[in-house]
Amino acid sequence: MAIVFIAIVIVLLAAHFAPELQRLRRFSWLRAWQGQSAAQGNAVLGLVIAIGVPALACLAVQLVVRDRGFGLPSLIFAVAMLFYCLGPRDLERDVEAVDKAPDSSRRLDALQALRPEEASAPLRFEANAVVEAAFTAGLRRVFGVIFWFAVAGPVGALLYRLAQLLAYTPAHAQALPAAQHVLAAKFARLLDWLPAHLIAFALALASDFDAVLKTWREYHTAHRQGYFCLDSGFLGAIARASVDADVEAGDGHAIDTSDPLVELDDAMTLIRRVLVVWLALIAVIVIAGTIGQA
Predict the structure, then answer these.
(1) Among the listed residues 188, 183, 177, 184, the one whose alpha carbon sits nearest the alpha carbon of residue 40
(2) Which residues contact 108 (CB under 8 A, 6 or more apart)?
(3) Which residue segment(s) compose the domain that 24 sits in?
(4) H/E run at residue 225
(5) What's the domain count of the chain?
(6) How many angstroms separate the CA atoms of 54 and 33, rounded?
(7) Whole-number Å distance between alpha carbons of 109 and 111
(8) Contact between 131 and 263 (Cβ < 8 Å)
(9) Which of 24, 155, 158, 230 could form a disulfide with 59 if both were Cys (CB 3.0 to 4.6 A apart)?
(10) Average pLDDT per 10 consecutive residues for the chain, totaling 294 residues
(11) Cβ contacts of residue 266 below 8 Å, gap of 6+?
(12) Contact 244/257 with Cβ under 8 angstroms?
């Protein structure tokens, strides 16, 4: 677990200080590999081939380098795979581009980088829309990858990224047969469920606990799907409530919850807080494990 924590810190620092390295996150090989899975008549088998075979190759390397060279090969592989599976775009810089846009037209253009990839309509420059988009991007670009990396190592990060690509990225999703795409979307929602709830839990700690709990309950009551459905829409509702509570409290030195820029900036502030909470929890687990082995 110590390697997991160190790898996450190294990758987050590299992503922040060396953003040009994001050009290495290329999945063009997956598009070619999809041709093999698309030829399968069985949708489940096709999806297993598309996602499972690359994941098994990653797992094989993960097992080979484990416990070798005092953990250094394992750390190097973990850092490389986690960095590869993040993003692919940098959320901080996409939000910064919106903030620094010189006029409304270019601000709206910059905002589209936050739009969920499967969305067909342009993202509107409205407070609720930009907050939801920021947290959806945070889940898919950062938190989902980190969660499954913490659970299963490099293979977990790769599984999550491949599922997201096949479910939501048009270049990959549109190349899948309809039945396979339906399964890929369900698998992606399944992988999002736990990280989305952990983001909500961290928001409760980092923002307004009562607002988060109240919104979570109201969302599920209104949609009548049960607490264990794969719908992660509650995250957008909780994000809006948390940001509104933060802005109204004056944490960002502004109280206008209708200003999209104010709400977007506060959303990024909360996303950073959530990341700190996650890192703190992982650090506690590492320390507890070290003490337990002493």
Answers:
(1) 177
(2) 122, 125
(3) 2-293
(4) none
(5) 1
(6) 9
(7) 5
(8) yes
(9) 155
(10) 91 91 90 72 80 94 90 95 95 95 94 91 94 96 97 96 94 86 92 95 92 90 76 90 86 69 94 96 86 68
(11) 243, 246, 247, 251, 252
(12) yes
